[in-house]
Task: inverse folding
């Protein structure tokens, strides 16, 4: 008897999974029983979530394999997005949406007596990022998959993501976020692609058999990097790209001495150190922390990812790197993965024996760097001694890169020693430091800022001398957000209204939203638009009531500021305005009042004292305002705890007013501003970051502008006198009196002294007092505009209609056209 042998790997022999609601029902039941061993219904949602998520994952698998095969077979150029952060949020809803299974999934779950919304809530957020920078990476990979660009995201699989924020007595309390505790349906471990990463040891120089000198890095302690892959589905296009996250693991090499001495448990336990590398995300946003473990994380990501790319290259091309730079591009998300520049040099020279010039040509034509901030406290510097101890061979290479770079500077500006000092990758001083941004500038062919103003300020300020040397390297790539998550998924009522009105093409071509503009003049459409917003506001009001015990009136204005808590973002200015409104109510100045619900949310870095004080002040002001019977529904204030991606999915659709009030010149771009605009909120904002471009797109009549410009901010500093400003403004004086008499700290006298001191300081870098009057006046215009609901709804519709530029689809097309130059690759046909 002969039987046909079917190779196990050929998926084309496996019957495809169907996509009807009955197919999904079968899948859910099968996984519930056979994958998770549940045989009767129970009250726990856990296995129902898992069975459903696995059923959806089944529908991604073939596309994932087909996409991978297409990328490998075509041997076309690929790009790699290297980022220490990917703030993904939840995956299930996005997968359902992008697979086009929305209706079938709802129906299937309904047949099983389950509710999609409830199941979605069971998934933990993948909070592997701090804020904008990490969320940007997540939106980028979504858009790359939708555009069918062969881009792989590389990051770290932190065991603990961004901490969970609890509010206790008005203060932030951090709790560990063990997001993997209940397992992660979406990741697949790929042990066969494990890489070893070296640390410590020392370097040796030696002559090869041809008498050529080389270096090697020896006596290192190695750590394994084990990849876990997450599927990134494109929107209804059959493409599923990959996010590859590295987990650290100990090698199996034992300390034989201890082992033989009978200390087996001790020698196994000692391996923990290696496993710590991917244990926890550093919770600092826009500030460096200088911890050794953080440098280990950075090199761990850089080394594992570059080795992974070189593994794939050498499998096809052997050790011929002549076309490597033409076919590969690494995009560095801020300076965090910048040690990649030295790591690629090291591997090309030490492992593949390329000469310096050849390796350098490849490296500097392969790396591209994105800068995310102008704040000096965020610029990464690592002490040379730390580099020397942890990564001695990398330090040698950085010194050599610097020496060759400085000789270029000397050629260009002979004798200008001061310039050489300023531009050197190594900062002199009591503790010598490696300036990571300069390493990135020297080692990359492209350097970009993330909004036009930010890119302009970079070449005028921070990087001006590098710009003088290589103007062709510098470019702007204005950020965006993905409209799949930030509109189609999170705002179902408006998405439906939009699609019913202008069709569905906006989901992959956001400029199509322009077609909504004429409907702003259609009273019937405005009414439907307002009804959608109202539904979203009720949904948020219910959650706010459950979380904070405060009832928001859904007819009142929803005035929202959610983002990391940072002095430059000026949540303090917002609170001063709230106190001003409270003061007006107490004075009886409430003619033509516009009722407001003010919502402030965001996490403070655990070591950032002022940011934590701002949270406490918000909560104390809220306590007073919300419990004063004179205030009633005229004003409600809450601090929304544990702001995260899934919270923003609820908040953005419900916003009337988006607060984007940073000190001009400090917010590189902002992306929260774009999510709000897309969802029909109006912006009150400074001329900062992408606010400028938002205002350009929507028109100044649909945007509430206030405050000093970036230029004025710098001009004012020398003569800034906040005490005179307060004195001359009776509203401001009242606000300060309330703060200073302890009205919001009755049981905690002196609690807000540091905040008061900051506002009154002539050296306040954020110039809070300078913009108070102009902010309060703009808020009055907002209040007046909201009274005229016809006008407001019109402006709201136009904000959505003109948000087309702020899709990451546009951003990715810009990166691709100017930097990556990839050809879209459709998945391999089955
Ligand atoms: C969009 C987003 C951010 C960035 O907000 P900004 O206002 O641009 O600072 C931060 N955190 C989360 C969870 C987000 O979704």
Result:
């Amino acid at each position: 008897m002969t039987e046909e042998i079917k190779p196990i790997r050929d998926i084309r022999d496996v019957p495809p999974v169907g996509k009807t609601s009955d197919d999904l029902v079968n899948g859910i039941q099968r996984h519930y029983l056979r994958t998770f061993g549940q045989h009767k219904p129970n009250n726990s949602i856990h296995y129902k979530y898992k069975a459903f998520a696995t059923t959806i994952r089944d529908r991604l698998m073939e596309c994932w394999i087909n996409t991978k095969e297409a990328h490998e077979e075509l041997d076309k150029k690929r790009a790699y997005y290297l980022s220490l952060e990917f703030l993904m949020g939840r995956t299930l809803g996005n997968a359902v949406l992008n697979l086009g299974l929305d209706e079938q999934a709802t129906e299937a779950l309904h047949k099983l007596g389950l509710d999609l919304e409830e199941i979605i809530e069971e998934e933990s957020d993948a909070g592997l990022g701090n804020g904008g920078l990490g969320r940007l990476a997540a939106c980028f990979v979504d858009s790359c998959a939708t555009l069918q660009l062969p881009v792989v995201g590389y990051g770290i699989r932190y065991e603990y993501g961004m901490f969970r924020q609890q509010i206790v007595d008005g203060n932030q309390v951090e709790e560990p976020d063990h997001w993997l505790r209940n397992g992660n349906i979406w990741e697949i471990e790929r042990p066969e692609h494990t890489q070893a990463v070296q640390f410590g040891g020392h370097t040796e120089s030696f002559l090869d058999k041809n008498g050529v000198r080389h270096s090697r890095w020896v006596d290192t302690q190695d750590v394994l990097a084990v990849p876990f892959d997450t599927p990134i589905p494109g929107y209804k296009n059959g493409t599923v790209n990959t996010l590859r996250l590295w987990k650290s693991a100990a090698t199996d090499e034992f300390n034989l001495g201890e082992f033989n001495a009978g200390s087996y448990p001790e020698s196994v336990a000692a391996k923990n150190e290696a496993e710590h590398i991917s244990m926890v995300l550093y919770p600092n946003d826009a500030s460096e922390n200088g911890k050794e473990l953080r440098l280990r994380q950075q090199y761990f990501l850089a080394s594992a990812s570059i080795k992974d790319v070189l593994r794939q290259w050498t499998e096809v091309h052997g050790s011929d790197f002549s076309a490597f730079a033409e076919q590969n591009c690494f995009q560095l998300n801020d300076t965090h993965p910048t040690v990649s520049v030295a790591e690629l040099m090291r591997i090309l020279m030490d492992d593949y024996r390329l000469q310096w010039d050849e390796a350098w040509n490849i490296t500097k034509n392969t790396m591209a760097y994105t800068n995310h901030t102008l704040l000096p406290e965020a610029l990464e510097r690592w002490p040379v001694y730390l580099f020397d101890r942890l990564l001695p061979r990398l330090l040698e290479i950085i010194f050599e890169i610097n020496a060759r770079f400085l000789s270029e500077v000397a050629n260009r500006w002979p004798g200008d020693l001061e310039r050489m000092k300023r531009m050197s990758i190594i900062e002199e001083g009591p503790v010598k430091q490696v300036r990571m941004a300069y390493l990135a500038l020297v080692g990359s062919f492209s350097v970009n800022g993330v909004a036009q103003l930010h890119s302009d300020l970079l070449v005028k300020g921070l990087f001006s001398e590098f710009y003088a040397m290589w103007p062709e390297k510098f470019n702007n790539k204005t950020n965006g957000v993905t409209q799949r998550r930030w509109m189609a998924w999170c705002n179902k009522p408006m998405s439906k209204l939009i699609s019913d009105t202008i069709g569905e093409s906006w989901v992959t071509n956001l400029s199509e939203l322009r077609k909504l503009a004429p409907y702003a003049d259609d009273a019937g459409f405005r009414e439907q638009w307002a009804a959608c917003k109202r539904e979203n506001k009720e949904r948020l009001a219910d959650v706010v009531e459950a979380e904070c015990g405060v009832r928001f009136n859904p007819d009142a204005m929803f005035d929202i500021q959610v983002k990391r808590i940072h002095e430059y973002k000026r949540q303090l200015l917002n609170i001063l305005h709230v106190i001003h409104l409270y003061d007006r109510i107490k004075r009886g100045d409430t003619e033509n009042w516009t009722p407001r619900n003010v919502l402030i949310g965001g996490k403070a870095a655990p070591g950032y004292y002022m940011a934590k004080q701002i949270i406490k002040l918000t909560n104390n002001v809220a306590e007073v305002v919300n419990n004063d019977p004179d205030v009633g529904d005229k004003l409600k204030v809450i601090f929304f705890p544990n702001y995260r991606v899934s919270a923003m999915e609820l908040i953005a659709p419900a916003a009337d007013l988006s607060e984007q009030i940073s000190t001009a010149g400090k917010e590189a771009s902002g992306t929260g501003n774009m999510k709000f605009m897309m969802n029909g909120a109006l912006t009150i904002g400074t001329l900062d970051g992408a606010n400028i471009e938002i205002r350009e797109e929507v028109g100044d009549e649909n945007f509430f502008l206030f405050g000093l410009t970036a230029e004025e901010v710098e001009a004012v500093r020398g003569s800034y006198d906040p005490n005179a400003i307060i004195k001359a403004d009776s509203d401001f004086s009242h606000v300060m009196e309330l703060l200073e008499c302890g009205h919001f700290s009755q049981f905690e006298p002196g609690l807000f002294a540091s905040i008061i001191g900051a506002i009154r300081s002539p050296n306040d870098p954020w110039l809070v007092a300078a913009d108070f009057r102009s902010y309060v006046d703009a808020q009055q215009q907002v209040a007046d505009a909201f009274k005229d609901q016809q006008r407001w709804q019109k402006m709201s519709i136009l904000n959505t209609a003109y948000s087309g530029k702020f899709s990451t689809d546009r951003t990715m097309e810009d990166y691709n056209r100017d930097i990556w130059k990839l050809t879209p690759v459709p998945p391999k046909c089955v």
